[in-house]
Design a protein that fits this description.
- The chain is α+β, with helices and mostly antiparallel strands.
- The chain is built from 6 helices and 7 strands.
- It is globular.
- Bound molecules: octanoyl-coenzyme A (CO8).
- Octanoyl-coenzyme A binds next to helix 4, helix 5, strand 4 and strand 7.
Length: about 220
């Protein structure tokens, strides 16, 4: 990660500060007893690919600021304790978004191993399309942040191809296609572990925000 941060212009000092803060928080992207064998196997496969440095495991915390090294996002909420990153909003393991992300910096690619729990139900037995959109946005967003820093989703277009059964495991695979000034274009596919079923495909546009302004200043100037 240290290498990744310097690659993307995030200072080592900021990274160390972030790391020490992040260490105090629970990392939700580690295996727990709700993970199925399929989720564990896929996780082990990616961990193995981390050994030569090609892939990096991305830790995940309940507070959005802890996710992002340095000061990519400045605090806009007076009371941070009451904020909670949306996909990490449930404490009970296995009921909501169970996921772990891995970054491939040289391919500008982020994957997410996702196991939707019963609280994400839409049609009986299947994940709600909004939960699929959330995990796609978070994966693509994470990829965009590592490439461009402070960004926001301007457009997200999803084609839902096959419903995702609750409790199954899917691979959300996203990559940066193009960067044009402040615009970052990305695409993504959501597939079953065996790759045979295409559940969804998406394209997205993220816009890099003005790095000299806080998020609050940025929003009030629009
Ligand atoms: C920690 C985990 C993170 C996970 C990721 C989660 C991501 C999110 O959920 S973000 C929340 C959802 N997104 C939002 O609320 C964003 C709301 N929108 C905004 O705030 C603004 O429109 C924003 C910031 C995207 C762009 O505003 P601004 O910085 O003023 O850019 P603006 O000047 O309008 O546009 C810049 C360029 O992008 C283009 N553009 C902007 N929006 C769009 C769009 N929707 N479609 C196509 N092009 C667009 C503009 O045409 C312009 O192009 P050009 O430079 O060629 O003229």
């Amino acid at each position: 990660l240290l290498k990744t941060c310097s690659l993307h212009g995030i200072s080592t000092f900021s990274f160390q500060t972030w790391l020490s803060q992040a260490r105090q928080s629970k990392d939700y992207a580690l295996p727990n007893s709700s993970w199925s064998q399929g989720m564990m196997d896929l996780y082990s496969r990616f961990l193995e690919m981390c050994k030569d440095g090609t892939w990096k495991r991305i830790p995940s915390y309940s507070n959005s600021i802890d996710h992002i090294p340095g000061k990519a996002f400045w605090c806009v909420c007076k009371e941070r304790k009451e904020t909670r990153l949306f996909p990490r909003n449930m404490d009970t393991e296995g009921v909501g978004f169970e996921y772990a992300m891995f970054l491939n910096p040289s391919e500008k690619r982020m994957v997410c191993l996702f196991q939707p729990g019963p609280y994400l139900e839409g049609h009986p037995g299947f994940a709600h399309g909004g939960s699929t959109a959330t995990i796609i946005d978070s994966t693509i967003g994470g990829c965009a942040i590592f490439v461009a820093g402070r960004v926001m989703t301007a457009n997200l277009s999803i084609n839902y191809r096959n419903p995702i059964p609750l409790g199954s495991v899917v691979l959300v695979d996203s990559k940066v296609d193009q960067v044009e000034g402040r615009k970052v274009f990305l695409s993504c596919q959501v597939r079953s572990i065996d790759g045979q079923t295409l559940h969804a495909e998406a394209t997205a546009l993220f816009i890099r925000l003005d790095s000299t302004k806080s998020l609050q200043q940025q929003m009030s100037s629009q």
